[in-house]
Design a protein that fits this description.
The protein is of the alpha+beta class. The protein is built from eleven helices and 24 strands. The strands form seven sheets. The chain has a six-stranded antiparallel beta sheet, sandwiched between helices. It is globular and about 80 Å long.
């Protein structure tokens, strides 16, 4: 691999010997970046770059201009994009709106609308709270229809069509989302068959839903099938894969109907009878009876970067585009294009080419050097403080306490794709900005859709990729400490 800057040739190969709280732990004299990459045996493409934060100087780059999939490292740019457009204190709202009037007896003479404002964190407990608030507002009955509206953002049945149908991290996206648009499927052996449930559970509630159904079928493969049938999410599962019992979250493809059924159940528990929910394509115009606010955006983004929730990334990214353009984007891709434009004009990036806000789509491309350019432009924003600490580990994968290097970064993982991008604090108080992207396209492209949940060899490849990332960070910490 060619070195794209001359910095490496003159780098002082010396040991770093800081004294931490637990005593002295010297970092070893590092090998060259090219040697470290070769020893990782990823059998694909690797691009990395590191710069000094103080002056933006590019210190080292190996294939750093090669555009590769960033995977969930893209969420770091999405977080910055949302903060810039919406502000750290922005809150999403979910509203209950009536199109009519309320009688003295508390009867709504018109329709009741559950209107989503794009909140990616709305959960079952939140809908229970809304039902209690509706009761407290004096509503006793609704004569008209019960409508659900998610049109504040464009609907997408999934983020990436190349993913298996049943993975919970690839749900539908809407302006009305519940439980990250996942439904809880549980099965237990019962006599010669299985008892199955589909619900929207939380710690306090387990409302069953009708819009998602599961049938157990006498087969071994495929494990799951999905069909959009009769306005429902119809699933089947292979009996041979169930064992004695278990549970998992499945994606929801009809998020407005899902939220509507759950709210209908909670309204009923408050003595308010509603008709079956109907999805509305028309923005509601009426009186707001009550509303539920999300946590501030910076808290949502911290959790998004920590847990790498794809739905959150897609929703906050599209909401940011809506704020910048003054209208909702036409699609996930259109919103990603708007963020690419922002990254070029606001961050000075050269050729960001994201196809979504989460990094789930493997057609997204960013080079390591371009990612470093973007992070350098963001060094004085709250982004670093929202990022998750990246723990340094020993050869047994145990976390090393009091490691002399402190890393705040965003990880990214797809099948045979791995990334890490963020900031390194050195013991002398200096800061480095870095990105490492790896991809084995031959192995990834050889996978069938069904193999993409747990491909053979994927876990081993990912461990080697993460070991490579740490080895490069330790190299940079030793070479560029002074």
């Amino acid at each position: 691999m060619a070195l794209t800057t001359p910095a490496l040739a003159n780098a002082p190969l010396r040991s770093l010997k800081p004294v931490g709280r637990g005593g002295e732990r010297p970092l070893p004299t590092p090998e060259s970046a090219a040697t470290i990459i070769d020893k990782a045996r990823l059998d694909g493409q690797v691009g990395c770059a590191v710069a000094r934060s103080a002056d933006g100087a590019l210190l080292e780059s190996v294939e750093g201009a090669e555009a590769l999939p960033p995977a969930s490292c893209a969420k770091a740019l999405t977080a910055a994009y949302a903060l810039d457009a919406l502000g750290a204190d922005y809150r999403f709202e979910t509203q209950l709106i009536t199109t009519g009037v309320i009688s003295e007896q508390g009867v709504v003479k018109g329709d009741l609308v559950l209107a989503g404002g794009g909140d990616p964190t709305l959960d079952t407990d939140g809908l229970a709270t809304l039902a209690r608030q509706l009761k407290a507002a004096g509503v006793t009955a609704v004569e008209g229809r019960f409508l659900v509206w998610g049109g504040s953002l464009p609907f997408s049945p999934m983020i990436d069509a190349a993913q298996p149908d049943h993975v919970g991290y690839n749900p539908a996206i809407s302006g009305l989302n519940l439980n990250f648009n996942r439904v809880h499927f549980e099965w237990k052996r019962s006599g010669n068959g299985y008892a199955v449930t589909m619900d929207a559970r939380s710690a306090a509630h387990r409302p069953k839903v009708r819009m998602a159904r599961m049938a157990v079928e006498a087969r071994s493969v495929p494990v799951y099938t999905y069909a959009d049938r009769g306005g429902r999410d119809d699933w089947t599962v292979a009996r041979g894969a169930l064992g004695n019992g278990g549970a998992r979250w499945l994606p929801v493809r009809k998020p407005e109907l899902y939220a509507g059924e759950v709210f209908e159940a909670f309204a009923r528990s408050q003595g308010i009878s509603l008709k079956a929910p109907e999805v509305s394509d028309v923005a509601p115009d009426g009186v707001v009876l009550t509303r539920l606010e999300s946590a501030p955006l910076d808290e949502i983004l911290r959790d998004m970067l920590r847990f790498s929730t794809n739905l959150t990334a897609e929703v906050v990214g599209q909401q940011a585009t809506r704020a910048r353009l003054g209208r909702a984007p036409e699609s996930l891709k259109a919103s990603a294009d708007a963020m690419n434009d922002w990254a070029r004009t606001s961050l000075g990036m050269d050729r960001p080419a994201l196809v979504d806000h989460s990094g789930l789509g493997d057609a997204s491309r960013i080079s390591a050097q371009d990612m470093v350019t973007g992070l350098l432009a963001l060094k004085d924003t709250p982004l670093k403080s929202l990022m998750k600490p990246f723990p340094m580990r020993d050869s047994e994968r145990r976390i090393i306490e009091n490691h002399p290097l402190s890393v705040q970064a965003k990880t990214g993982t797809l099948n045979f794709v791995s990334g890490l991008a963020g900031f390194v604090d050195l013991p002398n108080g200096e800061e480095l900005v870095f990105a490492v992207f790896s991809a084995n396209f031959d192995r990834r492209n050889a996978l069938s859709k069904a193999q993409r949940e747990r491909p053979d060899g994927g876990r081993t490849w990912n461990r080697r990729a993460k070991a490579l990332q740490q080895a490069l960070i330790e190299r940079w910490g030793a070479v560029y400490v002074g």
